Amino acid sequence: MTENKKIKIKPYVIYLFVGMFVMFALNKLLLRPFVLQNDLANALQVMVLSFPNFAEAVMGTMVLTGILFRVKHITLQKVTLLQPGHVFLAAAILAAIYVISGELRVHNLGNNNTYDPNDLIASVIGLNLAYFTVRKFGFATIHESAEN
Fold first, then answer.
1. pTM greater than the 0.85 cutoff
2. pLDDT by residue (tens digit) across 24-64?
3. Are 35 and 45 in contact (CB under 8 A)?
4. How far is CA 24 from CA 13, 28, 73, in A?
5. Element (H, E) at 2
6. Confidence of residue 148 (pLDDT cuts 50, 70, 90)
7. How confident is the model over 71-94, as pLDDT tens digits?
8. Which of 14, 71, 116, 124 has a Cα-to-Cα distance from 8 of 20 to 30 A?
9. How many CB atoms lie within 10 A of CB 130?
10. Cα 73 to the chain's mean position, in Å?
11. Do 87 and 65 contact (CB within 8 A), yes or no?
12. How far apart are CA 84 and CA 86, in angstroms?
C-alpha cells in the first residue's frame, strides 16, 4: 500500500487569479481606452495604466507559488525544514526578480516595458498583496489517500 498526496488549491486562490485576469482584460479592453480617450483625472489615468503591473505581480506570484508548492511535494517530501512559508517567500522573491527587473528594463521577456515609477509601485504592491495573502490564508491543502 502506498500513500498518494493530492494537492487541492484553495478556492480563494483560484478566485483571486481568475478575478485578476478578468479585471486585467476589462481594464485593457474597456476602462483604459475610455479613461484615456476622455482625458479623465490624472490619478485615474495612472491607476488604469499601472493596473496591469499590479495584476501581473499578483498572478505571477500565484503561478510561481503553485509551481514551487507542487515541486516541494513531489521532490522534496522528506525535507521537513522546508515549510510552506518558505515556498511562499521563494515564489514572491522569484516573482519580484522577474517583475522588477522587467520594470527596470533589465530584460524584455513577455512585455515591452517603458520605465514608469508608478508601474514599479503597482508591481511592489501586487507582490506584497499576493505574498501576505498566501502567507495568511495558505495556498493549498494536501489530502493523503491510501492506494492498494
1. no
2. 999 999 999 999 999 889 999 999 999 999 999 999 999 99
3. yes
4. 16, 6, 31
5. strand 2-9
6. very low
7. 877 776 666 666 778 888 889 999
8. 124
9. 27
10. 20
11. yes
12. 5
Pull the grid cell for residue 67: 509551481
Residue 120 CA to chain centroid, in angstroms? Answer: 15
Question: In the chain, what are the helix, strand and coil shares in percent, each to the nearest 5?
Answer: 70, 10, 20
CB atoms within 10 A of CB 143: 10
Q: How many angstroms from the chain centroid is the CA of residue 112?
A: 19
Residues 6+ away with beta carbon under 8 Å from 44: 35
- H or E element: which one contains 71? helix 42-75
Return left, alpha or beta for 79; rule: phi > 0 is left, psi -120 to 50 is alpha, else beta: beta
CA distances from 20 to 55, 58, 100 (A): 6, 8, 19
What is the maximal distance between C-alpha atoms in the chain?
A: 67
What is the reported pLDDT for 146? 55
C-alpha cell read off for 15: 478566485
